[in-house]
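[Automated response] Your request has been received and processed.

Submitted sequence:
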Amino acid sequence: MELFTTSLRHFHCDHDKRFVGNTSLLMFPIYGMAAAMAPIHKILCKQNVLVRGFIYMMLIFATEYTTGWLLRKFDMCPWDYSDADLNVDGLIRLDYGPWWFLAGLLFEHCVCDNKKQE
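Generated structure:
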């Protein structure tokens, strides 16, 4: 998803028709933490989609903030949102909330629904 969105941003802002996206290898273990949603989903499965999406969004914000804070301690944080209007310490963007809400539900579908087939 990150490669997709960064390539669209480069296309839109820089008029780069090559659709080149970028990420950091440090992001793979961070994104891999989405696998922790399976046990969380078992707890939340009786909740409606709005409650689940909100909780996932908050967990993603917490993960992004915490990992960013730790990586920043070692001068390794690959993102800096300091120039964005709705940033918190340059580590998270509150305007990404709706996207994280949807991403959480997508991750739930990918990670948890596959477990039902096993």
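Summary generated for your ticket: The chain has five helices and two strands. The longest strand covers residues 87-88.
If you did not submit this request, please reply to this message.
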